[in-house]
Structures are given as C-alpha cells and as structure tokens.
Design goal:
The chain has 406 residues and is mainly alpha-helical. The chain has helices at 11-15, 25-43, 49-56, 60-85, 90-110, 114-142, 148-184, 186-200, 223-243, 246-254, 258-285, 287-308, 312-326, 328-340, 345-374, 376-403.
Length: 406
C-alpha cells in the first residue's frame, strides 16, 4: 500500500523499555532496503500492464488483477501473522519473508503463463502483509525508545523512494530489457537486503502477549474506528481503481510513447514525494478537513482526465497534482491510528494493513473489469464516485470523533 503502511508504536510498549538498549541502525537500514524492493515489487505492474498483457496473452484488466491478488493475500497474512510472530524469532520471520520476495520476483520474471504470474503476485502479497504488520514492533526491538520514531521515518524513506522511482523505472527498464527483465532487476536488490539483514539484525525473540490482544476485529466495536477504517478503505479502492490502469490509459487515450510515459510517471512520483514531505504541516492546520479534501480533489482530477485526457500537457499536470495530494493521505491515516488508538496502535496498524490491502484488491479488480468491458471512462467514473464516498465517510468519522467521551 500501499504501501506507507507503518503502524505507530504503542505508548505502553515504548515506556517499558530502557534507554540502555543498543541501537541496531544497520538492521534499520537493511530493512529500509527491503522496504524499497518490496514496494517497487508490489506496484511495478502499474507501468508494465500493456507489455505483460501482450506477452501473457490476456487483457490489460486481467494483468491488473496481479495487484488485486497481491492485496488479497496481504489481507490474509496481516490477519494471521500475529499468531506466527508469537512463536518465531522475529529475525527468522523477516528473513523468511525476504526470501519469499526473492522467489516471487523470479517466478513473475520467468512466468510461462498467466497462472504462474498470478502465483508470483500472490507470494509478494504474503510478504507485504507480513512485513508491514511487523514493522513497528520490529523497530521497537532494534533501537532505544527515543529513536523509534526516527527508525520508522527511515523505513518510510525507503517507501517514499520506491513510490517515486518504481513506475518510471519499470517503464524505462521494460523498454530496454523487457517487462520480465524489469521484474528480474528487483531480485538482486532483494538478495542484498536478505544478506544485509542476516548480518545486521539481532536475534529478536517473541514477547508474551495478553490473551485476545491479537484479535484486531475487537477494535471495530469502536464507532470511530469502524467509520475511519471504512473511510480509508473506500479511499484506497477509488485510488487504485484508476491508478492501476494509468499506463493503458496514457497509451490509448493520451497516445504517449514509452519515453513520454516514463517522464509522466516520474512527474507523478516526484510530486508524490513532495506531497509526503509537506503533508504534516497541512494536517496541523486541519486534520479531518485535510483527509476529506484529498479524495475530493482526486475525484475532480479523475473527472477532468475523462474530459481532457487526450492532451499530453493537461494530463501531465493533472497527474502531477494527483501524486501531490494522494501520497499525503496514508501519512494522515497512520497519524489517525496513533491518535485514535494511542494504547492499541499496533493492533490498529494490523487492522489498517488488512483493510487497505482488501480495498486495493477490490479497486483494482472492479477497475479492471470496467476497463475491459466499458472502457476507461467507466473506470475513472467509478474511481471518482468511490473517492467522494470516502470523503463523506471522513466527515462522519470526524463527527463521531467529536461525540465520543474524552
């Protein structure tokens, strides 16, 4: 989920640890490289749908289901990983997930048919769900209390960098070595991350948990949490219904060549990086109003693309604006988790991972079906409607938040 799915650490967990704990910054940076490879792997298909569909002899909508299936398996993993994490050394589990990422990249790059491609995408979903659900708890074991926010920020740096370069780099590499070569280029990066983590991560034994603490669904009894999770889910559904099918839209409607396509995607990525770096200040000016304004602006962009998508200049500007406002939303929603569940943020983070990945899968699935059978206009219209519903749910969440006892 996209990625920027980093759950905030719980106050109780942090307060119980002493400052004498050594800082394993090598492990932090090794995991950051793993984050980069993971996010790049997850969303690489966005810029490669057309050549993948041609080679695998399927429609572009079917190729886009590779993102849907990874989201579905991320959901299943995020809901079950806590039980596994409670039995295994965290280092062993992280190394296993990184090895699985290497295997996924190789399977996709060498896939002889559509079924093998989908198998590889399912495996990357397992890694996404497992890795992000464990990220905060791992940071707490790697560095002292006061350094945990910095460690999480470094993790997010790998995420942001991958968000910027994955789509344009994938498009560029595919023009040189083909889409299979573009995927295979990520395998050595994952191997390096595996080796680096092997040597830099300390042994991290599982800690005892209170009975029932792993049941994330109990949080949905809180009306604010239930509404907020629905709001963020609908937001990501609307985002990925459109975002997944940008390449075929740009090729068929805007009629750009590969070099222009890479430039447009790079513009989107750079704008997203700027948006991520500035969103904190905007959220301070109005938290829920900002979370509601973002999907409204994105819906307006989706509708404008339907009208002016044939213009390269207008489309580039609109997609730059899309990147600028879109990437700030995950930052805002993870801040919301920490604010709403200050003593249960890790469980809230696990639930958020499941919700986001589920709705990413739904969005890319519905968007693909509409793209194949009704054309890009129906896909973009669906995205706009979903985003507006998400904005309305943000306002309901804000209202419920005001009404709850302090």
């Amino acid at each position: 989920m996209t990625a920027q799915a980093i759950s905030a650490p719980t106050g109780d967990s942090l307060d119980s640890r002493g400052e004498s704990q050594p800082a394993h910054w090598g492990g932090v940076f090794a995991m950051t490289l793993c984050v980069f490879a993971l996010i790049a792997s997850e969303f690489m298909p966005v810029s490669l749908l057309t050549p993948m569909a041609t080679d695998l002899q399927v429609t572009e909508g079917m190729a886009g289901q590779g993102i849907a299936i990874s989201g579905a398996f991320a959901v299943l993993t995020s809901l079950s990983i806590s039980a596994i994490a409670g039995m295994l050394n965290r280092k062993t589990l992280l190394l296993g997930l990184t090895a699985l990422m290497c295997l996924s990249g190789a399977i996709v790059a060498l896939a002889p048919n559509y079924l093998a491609y989908m198998l590889g995408r399912a495996l990357i979903g397992v890694v996404v769900g497992g890795f992000w659900s464990m990220s905060a708890a791992t940071a707490m074991q790697l560095v002292p209390t006061a350094k945990v926010p910095r460690a999480l920020a470094i993790f997010n740096g790998g995420n942001a960098l991958a968000t910027v370069v994955a789509a344009p780099l994938g498009s560029y590499l595919a023009s040189i070595v083909g889409w299979r070569g573009a995927f295979f280029c990520l395998v050595p990066v994952a191997v390096i991350a595996f080796v680096w983590q092997w040597f830099s991560l300390p042994s991290m034994h599982a800690k005892p948990r209170a009975p029932g603490s792993g049941n994330v669904f109990r949080l949905l009894k809180n009306r604010v949490v239930a509404l907020g999770m629905l709001a963020v889910g609908i937001f990501f559904m609307g985002q990925f219904a459109l975002f997944t099918y940008l390449r075929p839209f740009l090729e068929a409607v805007t009629r750009v060549d590969v070099s222009t396509l890479s430039l447009i995607l790079l513009t989107l990525g750079i704008a997203g990086f700027i948006g991520t770096s500035q969103i904190g200040r905007v959220l301070e000016m109005g938290f829920y109003s900002t979370l509601a304004a973002i999907p409204v602006l994105m819906a307006a962009i989706a509708l404008t693309l339907m009208a002016f998508g044939a213009s390269v200049t207008i489309t580039t500007v609109l997609l730059g604006l899309w990147g600028l406002v879109t990437t700030g939303a995950p930052v805002g929603w993870w801040t919301w988790v920490a604010r709403t569940l200050p003593n249960d943020a890790e469980a809230g983070g696990g639930l958020m991972v499941a919700v986001v990945q589920l709705f990413i899968a739904l969005g890319s699935t519905v968007g693909g079906l509409l793209f194949d059978h009704r054309g890009y206009q129906s896909t973009f219209a669906f995205s706009a409607v979903a985003l507006l519903i998400g904005a309305a749910l943000v306002l309901l969440t804000a209202s419920a938040d005001k009404e709850r006892p302090t």
